[in-house]
């Protein structure tokens, strides 16, 4: 399918997180959001104040009459398969909010439906597109610390201990699988982006907050195919003094055979040599009030660039299957009390990148 700029897009799901997606689209070249869809008229109205666009209450009606090149899904994961298959039937490319699916069979069906319709499926994993992780990846590829030995990545928040912690996304409180699914997919995707594919997973989960049914703490020990190790530590029961702001600028360090690279609170990278000497690598950032949304915009820009220029998407559906396999293996590990080996993805239908 030949596409030309500007591409016409729609956004389905105008809940809390959609505000960041819509702000991001305002800055993305080559694309315009021309349609919004949500079951709730009040949410539709609020979204329309950010980007004036034609409003739809029904997704099927949107695809019949929207004349779209692409759609971004900002709905809950249990709705993703039905909406992706609907988009594929109408020949519309899909950028899908994470987590892509609750179960593997749904993600496989999403990949297959897009492959059979020759449309793209990309998952909105925006952490890897943030400037500090792009810079860290470049430093690792340049051999700045030699051979990577271990990655440490930590996410800390207080929401499970606050009475209003789930106010913005109340459905979180009802999810039986929570922090590892909702936040862990970000950490796993970033871990894969930085150090490569994961071979084994050992996980421990816990629930300590009183306001939700799912786990609010998860620790994953990863074994990479390269031989490197990874430690992913995520909690929504942190104390306020260590909780990080919504920059997705989480504690990150990579230890290597020739030194350490560590993310700083201003987005820069600190290199520590084996002899203890240090030097800081600056990372250009947007102004403070734009940094968070910029991660969304960079992800969306990558999606549009791929459509217009035929470039492979880094977080395609098939790539995201590798991320989600690690997440699902984490649940298996915690439930069965054992290390789980990640098998090569099976059951895939080849799809556009």
From TrEMBL:
A Pfam family annotated for this UniProt entry: GFO_IDH_MocA_C3
Superkingdom of this protein's organism: Bacteria
Occurrences of domain GFO/IDH/MocA-like oxidoreductase (ranges): 133-260
InterPro entries hit by this protein: Gfo/Idh/MocA-like_OxRdtase_N (IPR000683), Gfo/Idh/MocA_oxidoreduct (IPR051317), GFO_IDH_MocA-like_dom (IPR055170), NAD(P)-bd_dom_sf (IPR036291)
Alphabetized Gene3D superfamilies for the sequence: Dihydrodipicolinate Reductase, domain 2 (3.30.360.10), NAD(P)-binding Rossmann-like Domain (3.40.50.720)
SUPFAM superfamilies linked: Glyceraldehyde-3-phosphate dehydrogenase-like, C-terminal domain, NAD(P)-binding Rossmann-fold domains
Gene Ontology MF: a single term: nucleotide binding
Residue intervals of the Gfo/Idh/MocA-like oxidoreductase N-terminal domain: 8-123
Protein name: Putative dehydrogenase
């Amino acid at each position: 399918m030949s596409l030309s700029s500007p591409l016409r897009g729609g956004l389905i799901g105008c809940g809390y997180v959609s505000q960041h997606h819509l702000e991001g689209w305002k800055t993305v070249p080559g694309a315009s959001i021309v349609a919004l869809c949500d079951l709730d008229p009040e949410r539709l109205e609020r979204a329309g104040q950010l980007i004036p666009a034609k409003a739809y209450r029904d997704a099927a009606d949107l695809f019949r009459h929207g004349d779209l090149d692409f759609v971004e899904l900002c709905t809950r994961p249990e709705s993703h398969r039905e909406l992706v298959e609907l988009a594929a039937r109408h020949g519309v490319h899909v950028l899908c909010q994470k987590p892509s699916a609750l179960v593997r069979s749904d993600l496989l069906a999403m990949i297959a439906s897009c492959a059979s319709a020759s449309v793209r499926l990309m998952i909105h994993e925006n952490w890897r597109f943030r400037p500090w992780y792009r810079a860290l990846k470049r430093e690792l590829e340049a051999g700045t610390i030699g051979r990577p030995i271990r990655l440490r990545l930590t996410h800390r928040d207080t929401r499970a201990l606050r009475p209003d912690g789930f106010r913005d996304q109340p459905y979180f409180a009802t999810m039986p699988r929570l922090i590892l699914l909702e936040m862990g997919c970000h950490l796993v995707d970033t871990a894969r982006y930085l150090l490569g594919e994961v071979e084994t997973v050992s996980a421990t989960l816990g629930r300590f907050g009183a306001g939700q049914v799912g786990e609010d703490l998860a620790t994953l020990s990863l074994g990479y195919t390269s031989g490197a190790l990874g430690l992913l530590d995520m909690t929504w029961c942190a104390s306020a003094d260590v909780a990080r702001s919504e920059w997705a600028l989480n504690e990150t360090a990579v230890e290597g055979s020739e030194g350490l690279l560590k993310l700083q609170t201003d987005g820069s990278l600190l290199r520590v040599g084996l002899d203890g000497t240090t030097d800081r690598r600056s990372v250009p950032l947007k102004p403070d009030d734009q940094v968070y949304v910029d991660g969304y915009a960079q992800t969306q820009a990558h999606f549009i660039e791929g459509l217009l220029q035929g470039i492979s998407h880094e977080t395609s559906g098939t790539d995201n299957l590798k991320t989600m396999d690690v997440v699902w293996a984490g649940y298996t590990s915690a439930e069965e009390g054992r290390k789980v080996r990640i098998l090569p993805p099976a059951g895939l239908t080849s799809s556009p990148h």
